[in-house]
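Note to self: user wants both folds in one dump. Writing first protein now.
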Amino acid sequence: MNPFVGFFDNCMFTIVIILTTLVQIATVEFGAKFTKTFKLNMDQNLICIGFGLGSLIWGFILKQTPLDWWKLSCLDFDCSEEELAEHNEVDEDGERKNPLRSETFKKSMAKSASQKKREAEIM
C-alpha cells in the first residue's frame, strides 16, 4: 500500500515536476519587482515545503476513506436522492465519476438558468 511505488518510473512526469519546481524557485528568488516577490529565508522555505507535504498527506488520507463518508458533499443543498446517488457513483476502477457530466446535473443547471431568467424578468 505504498503510494510512492513507481513514482519516478515515468520520465516525462519526473522532468515536468523538476522543471516546475525550478521555475517556481527562480520566480520567487529572482523575480523581485517583476513578479512582486521577495526572497524567502530557510524557515519560510521549510514552511512552504511543510504545506505542500501536508496537502499530499491529506489527499492520501481522503483517497483511503469510503465515498459513503462524504454523502453530504453534494454541491446543491436541495439535491434529491437520485442526484446524490448519481454524485457518488463510481466507475469500474473504483474512481468516482465526474458529477458535472451527469444528466441530472445538466437538468438541474438548466432549471437553475431558467429560474434566474424568470427572476430577471420579474425585476
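First done. Writing the second protein, which came from a different request thread.
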Amino acid sequence: MVEFTRYKTYEEYLTAQIDAGTKKKTGFWIKPHTIDMLVKKENRPIESVICHGVRTGRESEKFAEYATNVVGTEISRESIEYNKPNYKKSTVVEWDFNKQNLEWIGKFDIVYSNCLDHAYDPLETLEVWIDQLKDNGTLCLDCVNFADAPGASDWDPYQDTPDHIEEYVTNVFSMKLKYSFWSLGGKNNETKILAFTK
C-alpha cells in the first residue's frame, strides 16, 4: 500500500504542515520505552542525536537522557513557543526537515524521526537525513503501518507500510537494516522501528 498526496506547490505543503504542527502542538507520537529499547539495541555510546518533527520535544528530551548533544526540528514556530518549557536538555529549532542544513552534515550518531509520512518527497527527505549521519551512524525511522492505521489525513501526505519503506531504503540508498522491532505509537497504534546503517 502506498498513497501519496501531491500538493500543487511547495508553499501549499508548508502551510498545511505548519498548520498541523500548530494544531497538534500538544500531541506526541513516541512512547518513552521505544527510545529506551532503541538505545539498548544500539549498544554503544551515543553522543549526538537529531530528531525531526518533535513538536512537544518528548523524543528529543528522552534521547537527551543518553546523549549530550540532542537537536530537535519543528516546522511550527507556534508549537516551539508553546512547548519551550519542555525543552530542558535538548535544543529545538524551527526547521523544515525536507531541507538540508550544512552544519548538520555528517554530525549525528542517530537521526530519528516518526514523521516520514509528513515528507514532501520521501526519497529526497531520506537523502537529507542520511547525509546527516556520521560514518557509523544509524537512521531510525518510526513507521506506522498505514495499511491498518485509522485517522490518516492530508497532513500525512506519504502513507506506506514498514515493509515497503524497508525495501526502498535498502535498495535505493544501499543501506543495511541494523535492527527492527515493533512498538506502540500515539493512539496505541502499532508502529515499527526500522534502523539502518550505511
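Dump finished. Worth passing along: The mean pLDDT is 90.
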